[in-house]
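Running this now, will post back.
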Amino acid sequence: MADAPTEPTAEEIAAEQNEISEQKAVRLAKRERLIAAAADLGGGAYPVSVPVTTTIPELRARFGDLEPDTATGEIVGIAGRIMYLRNTGKLCFATLQAGDGSRIQAMVSLAEVGEESLAEWKDLVDLGDHVFVHGEVIASRRGELSIMADSWQIASKTLLPMPNLHNDLSEENRVRSRYLDLIAREQARTNVIARAKAVASLRRTFDELGFIEVETPMLQVMHGGASARPFVTHSNAFDTELFLRIAPELYLKRAVVGGIDHVFEINRNFRNEGADSTHSPEFAMLEAYQGYGDYNSIADLTQKLIQDAATSIAGGHVVTWADGTEFDLGGQWDRISMYDSLNAAAGTSFTPETPLAELKALAEREGIEIDHPIHGKYVEELWEHFVKGGLVRPTFVMDFPVDTSPLVRGHRSIAGVVEKWDLYIRGFELATGYSELVDPVIQRERFVEQATLAAGGDPEAMRLDEEFLRALEFGMPPTGGMGMGIDRLLMALTGLGIRETILFPLVK
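Update: finished.
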């Protein structure tokens, strides 16, 4: 077994910092020379523009199959970041990288650029610099697609040395310095592209189905729409306490009342809670409401949204995770009952009428600490303990306890539960869906129960929202609603942790 990597010593860290400082000083001196010679070198260290005529990806698409030692006669101007540099004698080589990670070789020769320009290249150009190269598209003797430069120019001088692209970027460094991660790792760039494709797919599917995208407030006078601890701030203009939203639900339902009954939003939510491999205090969220639908129709929609997103990234329902594992999102997904699956796994016969004492007894025997006075919390915690970890294939877990779901319609045929599902993939919750509670009288009763919990010290309980209740009193049609974390969607599609799916996650 290979030895685990050791942490660098204080002396090693100091030596590395000294080396970086020395290299920065050398590069700063080159910057000064470039600025001093700006008239001769075409704009100094940071020109306002360079005469690019095409891109590296375009050249690779057009000329990627050139035979070795071929000249095309095509003259182009390209720019990129230097990822490899070799200066030897009368011919220098550099590998230029575009933003998407595609690369091309630049060749700077004495015969083409002259003695003075070649000397300036060797003196002023470093790894990491952005450079512009003008010249003919060729294939080298080894078959490498290249530009034989007849002129070149610094596009942006890099002052800090590039890290060792294979050894220096630990997971922590990748998160803290994502710009370096994007330069160094193809997977980091792939993640950004995959996320963009997935979000575009979501919007495309909604558009095809006649949904309208809207935006709702992120600063709210009352937090609601989910059970979560909010971030609190203060508005100087209004001299009032405001909350960063934990969910857009109560505003999107107002839109449904107003007649926009197929509506969705993709935006940011904020929850002042813990951070781990599946949770982030700030996260992207999709919520959608389907008028004249229910939790079954919204489950069908959610499955289509995710499968369409998989197709946009992978070309089909089988996605390949970052570790090479193939994961099949195809077919019709299972739908299981929360109570039935818990009873099957735990050997119990719990129902919504089971006394709290029986639930507590099982929790104590299993070593599960639950600090909450309601039946539903025990059922959900026990379910997570016995069942959750075994759900790998996409599975809708249906029919939750009523007392943990204050915004959900009661089940049409089973007393004590509500028409709610959670979608689990790879053992984590990806989305949740409801047959929405549209009766304003029952909704008020549920809010009053939540207010009682809040008064008892529950920081996640919802408050009584009179404005929302007033909207419901104008009539909301039967509706199915769903919410899905965009970051978690990318986790399901890529197999990565949440910090890898967020471009710039919050770190301490």
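The two ends are 33 Å apart (CA to CA). More later if anyone needs it.
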